[in-house]
Every structure is written in structure tokens, then in C-alpha cells.
Amino acid sequence: MDAGLAAVLGAAVGSLATLGAAVVNGRVQAQAQQEQWRRQQRRDACADYLSALHDRDIAMDAILDALRSDQPDLSDVDEKIRRFIGLAREVHRTAEIVILEGPASLANVAQRVTHASSDLAQVMRRMADDARAGDTTRKAEDTALAAERERTLYQAIKDFRLAARDTIDSTN
């Protein structure tokens, strides 16, 4: 083989190797960027959800505090309930994004938060209805039940936070 042909073949092989390495490197970089984008989307969804939960829980605490009074101001309670309902809708909206962004294991933990929140809200509604009716027969029982369900809710939120961290840290 003459030197010119060998040089051309060597250059062609070198060019193909360089091109192949560039393609592989480009794919690896694109996958890393996609993975980072996915983590950021999940982080944002989880942060928004936790923020909405925080705001809603503060509103629920305000309602429960008002209802624990011997003579609750019913107009104040109703106003706080309206605020709570608006914040609960925001929690639902952000939960939907968490469910969409996945994974399913995180959505399952968010569902546990939803159920625990619903259980507490049920007691809160009953306490508000009883306060409107002037019925205090279940007040002590419902106050204790609300405290128990608050602990359950906060544990579910803690579990969500841990699951969210694990999901965001994982490299799918």
C-alpha cells in the first residue's frame, strides 16, 4: 500500500472514531441533561405541593383553634373555613402535578397525605357543624380525635417529604 493511501485511510478511520466518540458523548450528555430536567421538574412539583400543604395546614390549625374556644365566633370560623377551602383546592392542584411527574411510589405517599388530611377535615367540619348548632356533647371527644388525626397527617407529610427526597435524589 502506498503512503498516500495509508494516510487517507488513517485519516478516515481517525475521523470515524472521532465522530463516533462525539455521537456517544452527545448522547450521554443529552441523557444527563434530560435526567437533570426530570429531577428539577419533580423537585418543583414536590416543593409546590409541600408549600401548598403548609399554607392549608396553617389555615386548618386556625379553624381548629377557633373551634376549641368555649364560645367560638362563628362568622370568624366561617371565614377561616372559606380560606381553608381555597387553600385545599391549591393542594389538590399541586398534588395532581406530583402524580403526573411520578413516580407511582411518590404518588402513593401523596395519596396517604390526602386521606389523612381528609380524615382531619371531616372532624373539623363536624366540630364546625356542632358549634353552629350549639352542641358541645362531642367537643372533648372531637378535640382529642382532631389532635390524633393531626399527628397522623403530619407523619404522612413527613413520609412524603422523605419519599420526595429519595425520588429527587435517584437517578432513574
Written account of the structure:
- The chain is an all-alpha fold and 172 residues long.
- The protein starts with a helix and ends with a helix.
- The relative contact order is 0.11.
- The mean pLDDT is 89.
Please name the CATH architecture: Up-down Bundle
Question: According to CATH, what is the class?
Answer: Mainly Alpha
SSE string, helices as H and strands as E: HHHH
Give unreliable regions as ranges. none
Overall tally of domains: 1
Count of extended strands: 0
- Beta content: under 5%
Percent helix: over 70%
As a whole number of angstroms, the C-alpha radius of gyration is 28 Å
Distance between the amino and carboxyl termini: 51 Å
Mean pLDDT figure: 89
How many helices? The count is 4
Q: How does the overall form come out from the CA principal axes?
A: rod-shaped
Short description:
This is Proline dehydrogenase. This protein is mainly alpha-helical.
Give a quick set of tags describing it.
single chain; 172 residues; mainly alpha; A middle domain of Talin 1; Proline dehydrogenase
Q: How does the SSE layout of this entry go?
A:
Elements: H1 3-68, H2 74-101, H3 104-133, H4 139-169
Protein name: Proline dehydrogenase
